[in-house]
## 1
Amino acid sequence: MERKQTNLSVSVDVTKAKDFLAIIDTVGPFVCLIKTHIDIIEDFDSTVIDRLQELSKKHDFLIFEDRKFADIGNTVALQYSSGVYKIASWAHITNAHAVPGPSIVTGLASIGVPLQRGLILLAEMSSKGALTTGSYTEDAVRMARARRDFVIGFIAQHRMETIGASEGDDLADEDFLVLAPGVGLDAKGDAMGQQYRTPEEVVLACGCDIIIVGRGIYGKSDQLNTESVEEQAKRYRSAGWDAYKKRVSL
Ligand code: 5IU
């Protein structure tokens, strides 16, 4: 983030490998992180991963597979390491729901720690009516604190630093990343419950670190326009980084 002066992550939710790679090559210079949903690509084969890894090196970004694991430890370990996608072999970061309890972290860590991967826990979601509130969010933060060798942060809508802390907890050197999806400069939401806030609201007012932006950057149209994608990536990168600089100078 510091090296590239960016706290922008682009979420590339498109179904054709060609579009997926073209968007990533276009936004690559402006992002710290590319977020993928590898299972929505219709013409997936292992060359997509080879190319994604080349782009990660070319543009100096990390890869975050937004897999949202949610099963028992043994099953998630298999889903993470095996199957068609072998996520652990290429995704620097992945994420998991806290709903199964600490055993989900144990299962994923058995695969991810030896590969020096990082895990993000879902503490809050951006969608309308999400059940990730109150004691659920607090327990997700406690689960992260218990596995700081593997959990590097949260998907959340606010900074989590004092949430779920008990007296006597040593939080002095705690520095979890907070990644916030549901960011848009032009729309307030979509027709399926997504809710958007601006980078200012998310980073400056709520203390999140990374903004995750999807359709705000690549639009909805079937016809990919890489010029407009580049323009929007620059726009969100500036908005996110300006908000971050303001926050850290307060
Ligand atoms: N995403 C959310 N909200 C969440 C979580 C993940 O939007 O709480 I956890 C994902 C879904 C999509 C991306 O892949 O982030 C947001 O895309 P848009 O910016 O196009 O809404």
## 2
Amino acid sequence: MNVDKKLIAAIKKRVGNKIWSKWFSTFEVLSISENEIVFSVRNLFIKDWLEDKYGRAIRSAIKEVFGRNISFKVIYKEVSAVPTNMKRQESPISSYFIKPPKESNLNPDFTFSSFVVGSGNETAFKFAEKVAVEPGRFSPIFIYGGVGVGKTHLVQAIGNYIYSNKPEVNLVYLTSERFMNEMIKYLRESKMEKFREKYRNVDIFIVDDIQFLTGKNGVQFELFNTFNELMDKKKQIIFCSDRAPSDLQDFQDRLISRFKMGIVIEMRLPDVETRKRIARKIAEREGGHLDEELLDFLAENIDGSLRELRGAIIKLIAYQEIERRKVGIVEAINLVSHFLKKANTIDPGERLISVLSGMFDISPSMMRSRTRKANVVMARELGIFFARRYLKMTVRETAKLFGRSPSVVSTTTRKVEDKIKGNPLMKSYLNKILAHISPAVGKFS
Ligand code: ADP
Ligand code: MG
């Protein structure tokens, strides 16, 4: 056994098989030197997690294998570089049959079935499906949009679809950066002809993050030539970019006019409802169970890149696994605060009170008073239920917040639970509260 393997085995022994397969699946030894060992993982949040939670296990494994302490670090390695066959977790037999004939660079998680269609991505999805079924019919396609709108997922879904249906097709997915690096490699070895040949025999050519080639004339020239050859042969070309063709600066005009030649589609961030569905899909894909309310809360309050939404979901799933219990919204706000719309400074309980008073037009002191006025009772009961079930506050905390006894809190919670069943109005109130519990301070006031 080489030393990498010994080290891995020693760590595995310490954390146990279950934790290993859950959190260390992308963990690798990157380098070992006299005074430092570097590991890599393909997930930024798991990286923090491993350092925090398993630092001790890793340190002690190092000591066992090397007989002394050596410092270590875990670095994050981009996921896009993972070859398909490394991420698949099938048995050797099934992967023998399913595995694409060559390394495809595709992330097997990025499929059509794991892609939620909704506002912002409908048009792109429609074309993506058409391209997957009938490659070459709409070519070239140029998809653009900001960070984390789902471009890479969608174009890799095309790739995965074609791979599983027609494995014999010569499909290439790469980032423009990788295209450049390869070109440089061939150039150094004076094998440019070989490089050209390689890409001129491609049936489906997907180039991601084209904006990287800004100002890189030589590569643009090669890309232009490859493009022309493939178009002559009526092959399928797909480009992704973080901006529209005409906004690409320092790009040759003739290349830009090629980009514009076919179908140009913008992808945008989805609306809240779509984000909620995406949140569920991501949680499912990551194999974790977060409460519906929590997923909705995340979708409501992380309105930027879907990468952030995913990051938050992964972190919370990890946290739940390790802590072996459900996480509520209050805890989630602390754990993923850096992803949330705005720095969250107000205590969630206090915010709940202020949301309720806004919604039902009553003052916080009324809410806590003894009054039995119908709207006050309604607000209070919903609030107690929300604090318990959504915010996962304890009975005592809830009692204190609403100025009631613990036993009243318990009965009220059960009462509302019964009332909700078959009562869409109550449910819609709860959704409204949820939407307003936003950490964006002052949103409701
Ligand atoms: P981009 O390439 O536009 O920066 P990605 O394709 O990398 O964005 O998407 C970021 C993350 O969000 C990925 O994990 C991706 O799977 C997920 N994602 C984006 N859009 C969707 C969608 N419509 N359905 C499901 N997951 C999505
Ligand atoms: Mg991308």
